[in-house]
Amino acid sequence: MKILLTGSKGQLGTDFQLVSEDRHQVVGYDLDLDITDRGAVQRRVADVAPDLVVNAAAFTDVDGAESDEIACYRVNALGAQNLALGCLEAGIPLLHVSTDFVFNGEGESPYTEFDRPDPRGVYGKSKYAGECYVTGLLNRYYICRTSWLFGVGGSNFAKTMLEAGRERNSVRVVDDQEGSPTYSRDLARKILEIIEGGSYGTYHLSNSGSCTWNEFTRVIFEMAGINTPVLPVSTAELGRPAPRPRYSVMRGLALEMQGIEPMRHYREAVREFILRDLPDWEKRGEQS
Ligand SMILES: NC(=O)c1ccc[n+]([C@@H]2O[C@H](COP(=O)([O-])OP(=O)(O)OC[C@H]3O[C@@H](n4cnc5c(N)ncnc54)[C@H](OP(=O)(O)O)[C@@H]3O)[C@@H](O)[C@H]2O)c1
User: What's the pTM?
Assistant: First the structure.
């Protein structure tokens, strides 16, 4: 299959290229294909003539989105619309990546693909707007919602904590938000499996298990052999600009319905990420 990938230098984009290289022809673009430029998107889709577009490009600065609403909507909503229009014109499907932040976080049990989105902050609203454009414009689409991504490419919470744990005497991490950490390489593999299966629709794709950010940090430290104390702090105390869902655990009901294996437990993924996949200099906490 020939796949046009956007956001190729991001966490997911990097791993998607890695896991697909032996099986598909992936033509990746990052800022060299600005998805907010409709004409550029349409021309590139026509030139590359892919069988499928995978959109891993996004505005992912959740706090920054609160002060730069237009920039965030342009990438996450308008960008998704442009890609959907490009795919419509070319007669091909689109795989669009979305987020657990489409839910309000007030639930008590895992959200399924059939639960009603009700995003709160700008980032979540912009991602949901992107989903709506895709589902409204195309008959053949995959929406893959994921959560709490960490990976080798790009910066993320796990890398920040590894660095903080080595440099500080203690770290304070929120203990009142629950979700599912997800390794971008596992996500990329599952996305590939879904594409190859060809069943369109919405999917919840996160590593199994759930925890708070505080518990996640403890697992990261455990795997890395870091003994720095992890202290609790509340979301309110931290006072970040964007609202965060208190509970955003998702259930992969679409996978269950089709008898597709769920993604492995996040602890296994963290172990592999730290002990096998991170480059040695990052394992040792050195600067590149
Ligand atoms: N990160 C998470 O915790 C998380 C959680 C749930 C869902 N998701 C979703 O998962 C997907 C992948 O996330 P990720 O963490 O891999 O993202 P990421 O590392 O931030 O990568 C996104 C890439 O898109 C690029 N990009 C930004 N604006 C663009 C534009 N106008 N045109 C083309 N490319 C553009 C970014 O470039 P710059 O870096 O230069 O801006 C970056 O290389 C996104 O849809 C995201 O919403 C992420």
Answer: 0.97
